[in-house]
Amino acid sequence: MNTFALVLCDSYNTQHFASVRQFIGADDSGSFGIRAGHEHLVAVLRYGLARFEDDDGHWHYLSMPGGVLHFRGNQMTVTSVRYYLGEDRAKIHDQLAAEMQQADSDVHTSHASLTEIEHALIRRLGEMSGKQQEWL
Amino acid sequence: MSDRERQLEETARDVRRLEDHEKRPAGLFGIMFYGGTVGLLFVTPIVAGAYLGRWIDTLIEGYSVRWTVSLIVLGIALGAYNAYRYIKERS
Lengths: 136, 91
Prior knowledge:
The structure holds two protein chains of two kinds. Chain A is an alpha+beta fold. Chain A has two domains: 4-87, ATP Synthase, domain 1; 90-136. Chain A has one helix and seven strands, in the order E-E-E-E-E-E-E-H. Chain A has a five-stranded mixed β-barrel with strand order 1-2-4-5-6. Chain A is elongated. Chain B is mostly helical. Chain B has one domain (27-90). In chain B, helix 2 runs antiparallel to helix 3 (66-90). The chains are: A alpha+beta, B mainly alpha. At the A-B interface, strand 4, strand 5 and helix 1 of A face helix 1 of B.
């Protein structure tokens, strides 16, 4: 039993990794590593980068604004508000910035659409009230 | 500083820290440990092969070094393979 299961959860999605060799994260006391068969553990991860190695020896890098790590029964769960996963360490910072910008852009677009809908609704209500006055 | 800026900054700092750690040359203790491990992996099968071969040769009537030489050669091959695997895993 050299591997464990990893579940990553945030407000957008959940990802499962069936075979993970090791996980390296950091809390306020410093950096630590977890391997299969670890005792029951709960840790509050700090802002920044965590990483884990899958069964094929590939490292995955996880950037998050803190989170809660729970390890029990050879399964680890990492819960965060929003995490960004990448395999290229050198590019993860740029990917993160790009994704944040994309999220901002999406919010801006949604806000613009909502404002447009509100204006159309007010216009329509104005038109309807004008017609109602004509009928009276 | 907003949460996003903090996340970006902390992520960049952790990436830098990891890269610095990997680029840093190994200390004397690290070099000794690495070299010692490679040496042990290489030498152990040779010595074990030599002892085993010598013991088998003593069981054979008359003078013989056939098993000793064969198992030393096998030990060299096994030791080289072990050392190669270790170096490959570490690099």
